[in-house]
Design goal:
Layout: E1 2-10, E2 13-20, E3 23-30, E4 54-60, E5 69-72, E6 81-83, E7 95-98, E8 101-105, E9 108-112, H1 115-125, E10 129-135
Parallel strand pairs: 1-10, 6-7
Antiparallel strand pairs: 1-2, 2-3, 3-7, 4-5, 4-10, 5-6, 8-9
């Protein structure tokens, strides 16, 4: 099974399309591209970057914070997950998945819809372990 995220960068967020075996499955949302910057716990600001482009291992996660999928081998990062999210404020360097992205909703430039339902569908569809390619 091949997973591919094609994304576009914006200063207020990174929007993507997740394809499974060449077929569009859902939309993705991430933090803006800040050159793989990590969250600074001292500032309590959500200042992390989106995941760098590359190939990653995606595994079913039963122990993480959200218990959907873990994204492994992200350079200089840990605890990266794919999980439900509506806005970039719900993401600390992780990937959010949803049905569609609406623009300029609830004071956010990008709003991800039906995220929990989409993540549950991914749990049913994906194997325990697969490769995820992220590119623009």
């Amino acid at each position: 099974m091949q997973l591919l995220i094609l994304r576009k960068y914006d200063k207020e967020g990174t929007c993507g399309k997740l394809f499974i075996d060449g077929e569009l499955f859902c939309r993705t949302l991430e933090r803006p591209n800040l050159d793989n910057q990590q969250d600074n716990p001292k500032t309590k600001a959500n200042d992390s970057s989106c995941i760098p482009e590359g190939d990653y291992t995606l595994v079913r996660d039963r122990v993480g914070r959200f218990k959907y999928f873990a994204v492994l081998d992200v350079p200089n990062r840990s605890n990266i997950e794919l999980h439900p999210a509506n806005s970039i404020d719900d993401l600390l360097g992780c990937l959010g998945a949803g049905e569609e992205i609406q623009e300029n909703k609830y004071n956010y430039k990008f709003w991800l819809t039906k995220s929990k339902m989409t993540c549950l569908k991914l749990v049913d569809k994906l194997p325990e372990k697969c490769t995820l390619k992220i590119t623009s």
